[in-house]
Structures are given as structure tokens and as C-alpha cells.
Write a structure and sequence with these properties.
heterodimer, A: 358 residues, B: 603 residues, Penicillin-binding protein 2a (Domain 2), Beta-lactamase
Chain lengths: 358, 603
């Protein structure tokens, strides 16, 4: 026990808890004018996430690795069932109703998917055709199941596994070429056959937001105004006109960073960046016991990094609106729970090299 | 026991970690730079946009200036009124509004659609006025559910009110929402769609003085248009107060005794040239336009065959009939075609240019001078003058006295009428002037056409022995500082010798006071001078005359022009009754009643 406390990454854990705590403060301001008190709900989610964190932390890494593939399959089946008969919630089928809370399965499947990826990467020396197809299948199944919900943003985040894999492993250059051609082709097919008109609008409006000022581009325009008008020190907590006068859309979820940028300014944004930097730096650099652990830490943290990047850039109009929340920070229970579960596994892995038994 | 289960070498791991750290650093520095450039470098730009988002300027309509009568009684004022506006910025779905809100609020779908169409070129933040004079219960209903109807906004606006209703409607005119065409004409000025403006009468004539200056309210509004904070407010300035020469109590009296008839009455104060009363029948209620004006009501008013919006006093064109004889007499005297003592014989008719012209009295008037010719309104006497005189000379005097010309009274849309000349005939009709036409004109017929106001100016000029007054309605205006600016009275000298006026006035005196045609106008103790005119619609030679004339539309127009007292005259008056019948029986008695009201204050 003494060893656990000694080798437990207290800095990373402090940051991991600090990000959602800071998030709750900003959610309070964002939902100040709303009927639902999202901040208190999120506080409950955080407490639940901490409990889940320590429960998962107690599980041996071997067990987790052993059960990762069955859990992956189970969640994929659950997604498929959801898709077939899921309850319709606001046009998407991504929610499962379980008593008090709504759970998003799509948020959780990234944990076993990352484990599955890590296990596969640990076995292969280089990405050849066979390995390429193998890895594509691991990501492809949940990707399409989630994309068809349709929740394009969450599905798109899984692509980060692939990007990370390409950086971690040597790859045959021909495979890489085919990979990019495949991406281009699937973009074309997806655009023509899969995307709903509103999703197409979102992507088009990214190119010229002012043209869509009153519709979809409106969100980006208002978000940029919020961030830009925040200045160096911001307009003060609860003092943002864009947020408090309700010009910002979905400001407690996808556009939470605009509220932060407006009310706490560049300094607030920098502080958020610092927290994420510390967390990711700590999780990318540790003495791992096995290749699986090493790859899993990279897989899972790359999705955090990727989602963080996409959201932060979306808010200032650098990428299209994909409907991606800011990880650990935006309102959303499933997402928070899933990230804490994944991080718990990594925190456990970080002490495996030092602590043998407990 | 810990066993290292790995294929990755230490160097490989540290290579990956190093590149990961570099990538991490690059990403965070790039993102920081992006936020720095937006938040710090372009802060000014976005701050402006943010304040543009919330700060909305709304104009505050100015109350129109008051219109007072000569004794400062209010003829036009303002009352508070709730107007319902539609703000398209908060309309996600127009169809929903039309289907849901219209039924809930009891509004007409077509009206709203029409309004939206009308304002489609205006920015969506422009508030479309939907309904004026919203009933209080609807105001309470909407205001208490403002979240349910974010697209509707209720503003308190001043609305025009006319305390005397229909009385004086043709003087005051009316105001209503300006049309697109009218707005384009006024482009340079500070008008916006939805503004009201004067459409006729004093309201139109003095629009610039009455409209006042709009104010501006700058307020911070949220995304639903709700006001969160008022930043600054610049109040509107009420328009200037107009004081008219009208005596509203006299006006009321005149319209009351005139309500059975169609026609026009004008009464002028000869000391100033200001009109004391002016009635045109039928009339209308100007408040009708200040409220909700739907197309049906408007069409009913415009298509009304009696034309209640038509001001007969300024715009009605009629033959002056025998009232014109005083003009011909003045012309003949000044041109020395006759003198005060020349005698002429009336046998009931006269054959000129192989055509027989009849006197109204077929028995004939016997021998008479010019005074008696006016007193009895003898046609034959004036036929002889018509034979002697050139039409252009008669026209010159008619125009000199104000006929066939704009009086330039301060009301819009005055008609000119026609005093014929040879040039007019050849120019417009492309025909030569026939001497026989002069005979008709000499008794006020033929192509001669005038308006009642010209007739009033003519009789005023005679009363004042050649000083032609400028007729007007405005006594003074009071500017925003409270300073009163009086209207300057103007008179123009007419080049006819005073002695000739005295001769004609002698005749006009006898018309009323020595059993002339206007005997019915006589008021004991008051020297009224007047002249009747009965303008036939169908010829007396028509075989069915006696039968047809019983129908209203074939009844002659009745004129009575007059002034009083004979010496140092104070009042001049014209009474014109459309299809009224015999002037002596219908127009003269009306004048008499009015004189009694003015001079003896009898009702």
C-alpha cells in the first residue's frame, strides 16, 4: 500500500481531477441562463467517475487485457442492437436509458478498442497488408456503428487510433498510399451516400461561415466572437455577453471553450492548455512493463489529444463543427466516465513496473 | 516476479517518447498561438462584433404636434396606443407563427403574410408593425407570455386622436402609414417604413412641422431580443403646435346645420384672410385611419360613390352660375361698357346671333340699371354685356378676382378650375372661340368652372373693395421652444376702381335687403350683401324639365356668396349646395343662420 502511494502518479491524478472540476465551474456559468442545473449533474458524474476510477484501478492489468476483446465484441453488439432498435433520442440512437442516467455506449467502446489495438500492435513487427486490414477492422466496426447512429463526431475520434498506430509502427509505403486513397474514397462515398443534408451543411458552412450566418455557420461566427472578444483576461466569470445573453449554441457541451475564452480570456485558455499538456506529457512518458501497456497508453491518450485539438480548433472555426465535446471538461457523464475508466487502467499500468503484489 | 515482456527496445521507446513530446509541444504552441492571435491580436475586432450583437438601436417615434383652433381648443392630439410588432430575427418558422400564433392571438393570417412581403427587403432586425391599437387584454396576454412569443414585441406608440371626430375632417385631413412610393419620394428625410405621415389636409400640408424629431434608444438585448440593459436614451421631440384660424365651435355649428346636404361652406375673417370654418359634405372620421386600417374598410371608403374623402371646397369644380354676374358687372363698369346709370330693357328673352337667350323670369324685368340687374339677377342685362365685351377681357377680371387660379391656400391638392380664353379654346380644344359662348359665360355658364374657395376669394375681394386677401388656415405655429410665430396676413390690390365696387355692393345689398333673389338671407340689424346663383343641371327648355328636376341628381346647384356688414365688412361666406335646388330657397337661408350665429351668437 505504501508502495502504491509512492509510485502512484499524484501530479497526473491531480490534473485529471482538476480538469473536470474547472469544467464544472465553467459549466455553471454556461448554464446560468438554462433551466437545467448542469453543473450539479456534472458534479455527481465526477464523483461517480472517481469511484469507477478506483474500482478499475484495483483490477489487474492482465485481467483487463484478457477480457478486452470479449468486452470489445460485447459493446459492438450492443451498438448494433442500439442501431437496430435503440430508443430515439433527439434524432440520434446513441443513448441507452438505464434508470437514472443515460449511458452512451459509443463513448465506452474506445477503451476495449484501444486495448485491442495495443494487443495487436504488440504482436506485429511492421504494418503489412494483413496487419493493415486487421487494424482497420478493429477501428472500422465501431466507427461505422457509431457513424450510422448518426454521431459522426464520436466516430471520427476513433481515427486517432489509426494515426497513432501509423506513428508508432513502421509501415510499408504502398500501404500508406492505399490508406490515403481509401480515406479519399470513403470521404467521397460518405459525402454522397451517408451524410444527411444537415451534416453536409455543417461541413460546407465551415468553408464560408458568414454565408450561413443565420443557420449553421452562425454557431461558428458567434463562437469566434465570444473567444475573440474575451481578450487577454476575459470579461470576468459570469460576465460574458455572448454566453450570458445566449448567443452561443450548446455552450455547456461542444462550445464550452468559447465560454471559457470569453469570460476568462487568453489566460483562462492557457491554464486549460497547461492542464492538458501536463496530463498528456505524464501519460506519454512512463516506464511501462510491457508493449501492450506502452501502446495502450499511447492509443488512449491520443484520442484525448485528438478530441481536445478538434474541439479547441472547432470553437475558433479552424475545423468544421463535428459535434465533439471538450474531453473531461464539457458536460457529459458517459464521456467523463469513459475517460476516467481508461485513465484508471493507465494509472495502474504506471505502477506495474514498481509494485508487484498488493 | 516481474518479467519484462517486450519486443520494443529501450532506444525505440525513448525515440517514440521524444517524438511524442515534440509533437505535443508543437500542437500546444500552435494552439496557443492561434488563440493569442484571435483573443489578443484581433480582440478589438471581435469586441466590436460582440457589442454589435447585443446593442440594438431602436428609434422612438415622436408624437405629432397638436393642432389647435383659434381659441386653443384641441382639434388633433395624441393618445397612447399599443402596437404589436413582428421581429423576424426570432422567427424560426413563419408558418408556425401563422398557424399557431394567429389562432391564439386572433390575427388575420393574410394580413401578416402581406406585411412580411411588404417589408421583405428590410433587414430582419426591422420590426414590422402588425397591429395598431392592440386591445388591452391582448397586450396583457402577450406580455405575460413573452417567452412563448419571442417574435412579437409590443411598443407603446403615440396615436393620432381627433377629439371632435368628423368635425373639421376636411381641414385636418388624416395620417396613415406611408406607402413604399411615398417613402421613396421622401428618401432624403428621416422616414422609415412603418412611419405614419399626413395624407391630406393640414396633416399633410404641415407634415414637416407636425412630425417632430425621432429619438433613439440604445439597449443591450439578448439572443431572444429581450432587453437586458438600457445603455442610452435620446428622447423624441414632439412636433410643433399649429394654431388654426378655425373656430371649432362655429365649425361644429356649420357642419351640424349642413349635415342634410352635400356641398361646401367657407367662412372667412376679412380682417386676416383666415378661414373661421370650412365644411365639405360628406365628410369622414380621420381617426379611422389612425387605427387598424384593413383593406375592406379602406376600399369601402375609397369606392363610396359619395366620395367622402373629396374636399369639395378646394377640389370640387362647378359652374358659378349667376354669382359670376358680379364679376361681369365689375368688368363692364371698369371697362366703361356700362355705367351705373345705364338702363337696359328686359323682355324675358333676347335674340343674339340668331339664337334666343332666355331670362330666368320669362315675363321680363322691364327697364333696369346695373344695380337692379344684380338685385334681380337679370340674364338679359348680362347677355347684352356679353355681346359687347370680349371673352378675354371678362376672363382677365375673373382671374384678377381670384377665379380660375390657385388661391394657394395652405391645404394640399387644390384644383384650378377654368376661366376660358380664346387662347385656351384654340390651344386645348383646337377650335375658334364662338361669340355665342361669351353670352353663356356672361351669366356664369358655358365652359367656366371654379371651385368654392375661388368664389370665396372673389366675394372677399369685392367686400374689401379690391383688396384681395390671401386665404389661409394657419394662424400661427408654436415651435419646440414655445415661441409663437404668427402667419403674416397679406392683401393684394386689384386694379378696379373703388366706386365700381360700391355700385356692385349696392346691388348685392339689395339682393338680400330689398326683396332680391337672396331675401331669405336677411338678418334684421345686419347689412348682409350677397348674390345667389342657381346653376341648372338640365336646360329649362328640356320638355321633361319639370318632371326630371324633382330627381336629386337633376336638381340645380345652389350658390350663395355674401359678406357682412356692408360697411367695414368682417365676414365673407360662400355656401354651395350640390343639387340643392333654388339658391334663394336653400343656400341663402343657410347663410342667414350662420350670420345670426356669428353676429348675434344665436343658435
Amino acid at each position: 500500500m505504501k508502495d502504491i502511494l509512492r509510485y502512484f502518479d499524484k501530479t497526473a491524478f491531480f490534473v485529471l481531477v482538476a480538469i473536470p472540476t474547472f469544467g464544472i465551474l465553467v459549466i455553471y456559468s454556461a448554464s446560468n441562463q438554462m433551466a437545467t442545473s448542469y453543473w450539479s449533474k456534472q458534479l455527481l458524474w465526477l464523483l461517480l467517475a472517481l469511484i469507477v476510477f478506483f474500482v478499475v484501478f484495483r483490477i489487474k492489468t492482465d485481467v483487463i487485457l484478457r477480457f478486452s476483446i470479449p468486452i470489445y465484441i460485447a459493446l459492438a453488439v450492443l451498438l448494433a442492437i442500439q442501431l437496430a432498435a435503440g430508443e430515439l433520442v433527439a434524432g440520434t440512437k446513441s443513448w441507452i436509458k438505464t434508470g437514472f442516467f443515460n449511458i452512451q455506449v459509443s463513448e465506452f467502446i474506445k477503451i476495449p478498442a484501444a486495448l485491442f489495438m495495443a494487443k495487436t500492435l504488440a504482436k506485429i513487427p511492421e504494418i503489412q497488408w494483413k496487419e493493415f486490414i486487421q487494424l482497420s477492422a478493429i477501428i472500422g466496426v465501431p466507427f461505422f456503428l457509431i457513424a450510422l447512429q448518426p454521431d459522426l463526431g464520436t466516430a471520427f475520434m476513433l481515427v486517432s487510433f489509426f494515426i497513432a498506430a501509423l506513428m508508432l509502427k513502421k509501415i510499408k509505403w504502398l500501404v500508406l498510399v492505399v490508406f490515403f486513397i481509401g480515406i479519399a474514397a470513403s470521404f467521397y462515398i460518405g459525402w454522397t451516400y451517408l451524410l444527411k443534408p444537415y451534416q453536409q451543411d455543417r461541413l460546407v458552412s465551415f468553408i464560408d461561415p458568414s454565408k450561413y450566418q443565420k443557420s449553421i455557420g452562425y454557431q461558428v461566427v458567434q463562437s469566434k466572437i465570444a473567444v475573440g472578444s474575451g481578450g487577454l483576461t476575459g470579461k470576468g466569470y459570469l460576465g460574458g455577453t455572448q454566453s450570458q445573453y445566449q448567443f452561443l449554441p450548446t455552450r455547456h457541451t461542444d462550445f464550452i471553450a468559447s465560454v471559457l475564452g470569453e469570460e476568462l480570456g487568453f489566460l483562462g485558455i492557457s491554464f486549460l492548455f497547461l492542464l492538458f499538456f501536463i496530463l498528456l506529457y505524464r501519460q506519454f512518458n512512463f516506464k511501462s512493463q510491457s508493449d501492450e501497456e506502452f501502446y495502450f497508453a499511447y492509443m488512449f491518450n491520443s484520442i484525448i489529444l485528438f478530441q481536445f485539438m478538434v474541439n479547441i480548433m472547432m470553437v475558433i472555426g479552424f475545423v468544421p463543427i463535428l459535434g465533439v465535446p471538450l474531453p473531461l471538461f464539457s458536460y457529459g457523464g458517459s464521456s467523463l466516465l469513459a475517460f476516467f475508466t481508461g485513465e484508471a487502467i493507465i494509472f495502474k499500468m504506471k505502477i506495474n513496473s514498481f509494485v508487484y503484489e498488493y | 516476479m516481474y518479467i519484462e515482456k517486450r519486443k520494443l527496445s529501450r532506444t525505440e521507446i525513448s525515440r517514440i517518447e521524444t517524438s511524442a513530446n515534440i509533437i505535443l509541444a508543437v500542437i500546444f504552441i500552435a494552439l496557443l498561438f492561434a488563440y493569442w492571435s484571435i483573443q489578443v491580436l484581433r480582440n478589438r475586432y471581435y469586441t466590436d462584433l460582440a457589442s454589435q450583437n447585443i446593442i440594438k438601436s431602436v428609434e422612438i417615434k415622436a408624437p405629432r404636434g397638436l393642432i389647435l383652433d383659434i381659441h386653443h381648443k384641441r382639434m388633433a392630439e395624441n393618445k397612447l396606443n399599443f402596437t404589436l410588432f413582428l421581429n423576424r430575427e426570432y422567427c424560426e418558422n413563419v408558418q408556425r407563427i401563422i398557424n399557431h400564433d394567429c389562432s391564439v392571438l386572433g390575427l388575420k393570417k393574410e394580413d401578416i403574410l402581406k406585411k412580411i412581403e411588404k417589408y421583405k427587403n428590410y433587414p430582419s432586425s426591422f420590426m414590422i408593425p402588425i397591429e395598431k391599437c392592440l386591445p388591452l387584454e391582448k397586450v396583457i396576454y402577450i406580455e405575460s407570455r413573452s417567452d412563448e412569443f419571442p417574435e412579437f414585441k409590443i411598443e407603446i406608440e403615440p396615436a393620432r386622436a381627433y377629439p371632435y371626430g368628423e368635425v373639421g375632417s376636411h381641414i385636418l385631413g388624416y395620417i396613415s402609414e406611408l406607402t413604399l412610393d411615398e417613402l421613396n419620394e421622401m428618401k432624403s428625410q428621416d422616414y422609415a417604413l412603418g412611419d405614419q405621415g399626413g395624407k391630406s389636409g393640414i396633416e399633410k400640408q404641415y407634415e414637416e412641422r407636425l412630425r417632430g424629431t425621432k429619438g433613439v434608444r440604445r439597449a443591450a438585448r439578448d439572443n431572444l431580443g429581450r432587453i437586458r440593459e438600457i445603455i442610452s436614451e435620446e428622447g423624441s421631440i414632439i412636433g410643433e403646435t399649429l394654431v388654426l384660424t378655425i373656430d371649432i365651435e362655429l365649425q361644429k355649428f356649420v357642419e351640424e346645420i349642413f349635415k342634410e346636404h352635400f356641398g361646401a361652406i367657407g367662412i372667412v375673417d376679412l380682417k386676416t384672410g383666415g378661414l373661421l370654418a370650412m365644411a365639405s359634405r360628406p365628410n369622414f372620421n380621420p381617426e379611422f385611419f389612425s387605427g387598424v386600417l384593413d383593406a375592406d374598410n379602406w376600399n369601402a371608403l375609397v369606392k363610396n360613390p359619395d366620395k367622402p374623402l373629396h374636399n369639395k371646397f378646394l377640389q370640387g369644380i362647378y359652374s358659378p352660375g349667376s354669382t359670376f354676374k358680379v364679376v361681369v358687372a365689375l368688368a363692364a363698369l371698369q371697362e366703361k361698357e356700362v355705367d351705373a346709370t345705364s338702363i337696359s330693357l328686359c323682355t324675358g328673352n333676347l335674340k343674339i346671333y340668331d339664337k334666343t337667350f332666355h331670362c330666368w323670369n320669362s315675363a321680363g324685368h322691364g327697364p333696369l340699371d346695373v344695380v337692379d340687374a344684380i338685385k334681380n339677377s337679370c340674364n338679359v342685362y348680362f347677355y347684352r354685356i356679353g355681346k359687347k365685351m370680349d371673352i378675354d377681357v371678362i376672363s382677365k377680371y375673373a382671374q384678377m378676382l381670384g377665379l380660375g387660379n390657385y388661391t394657394h391656400i395652405d391645404l394640399p391638392n387644390e384644383k384650378r378650375g377654368l376661366v376660358p380664353t380664346k387662347e385656351w379654346k384654340s390651344h386645348v380644344k383646337k377650335e375658334k372661340w364662338f361669340p355665342g359662348e361669351t353670352i353663356s359665360v356672361s351669366i356664369g355658364g358655358g365652359s367656366l368652372h371654379i371651385t368654392p374657395i375661388q368664389s370665396l376669394q372673389m366675394v372677399s375681394t369685392i367686400a374689401l373693395r379690391g383688396r384681395k386677401p390671401k386665404l389661409h388656415f394657419l394662424k400661427s405655429y408654436i415651435d419646440s421652444k414655445g415661441v409663437e410665430h404668427p402667419f403674416t396676413t397679406e392683401f393684394e390690390e386689384v386694379s378696379i376702381e373703388k366706386i365700381h365696387f360700391e355700385t356692385v355692393i349696392e346691388g348685392m345689398y339689395k339682393v338680400v335687403n330689398e326683396s332680391g333673389t337672396g331675401l331669405a338671407a336677411k338678418v334684421p340689424g345686419l347689412d348682409i350683401c350677397g348674390k345667389t346663383g342657381t346653376q341648372q343641371i338640365i336646360s329649362k327648355e328640356n320638355p321633361n324639365y319639370s318632371k326630371l328636376v324633382k330627381q336629386k341628381k337633376y336638381k340645380p346647384h345652389a350658390w350663395f356668396i355674401s359678406f357682412a356688414p356692408r360697411h367695414d365688412p368682417k365676414i365673407a361666406m360662400v355656401v354651395f349646395v350640390e343639387h340643392g335646388g333654388d339658391a334663394g330657397e336653400i343656400a341663402a337661408p343657410l347663410a342667414s343662420v350662420i350670420y345670426k350665429r356669428i353676429f348675434m351668437n344665436k343658435q
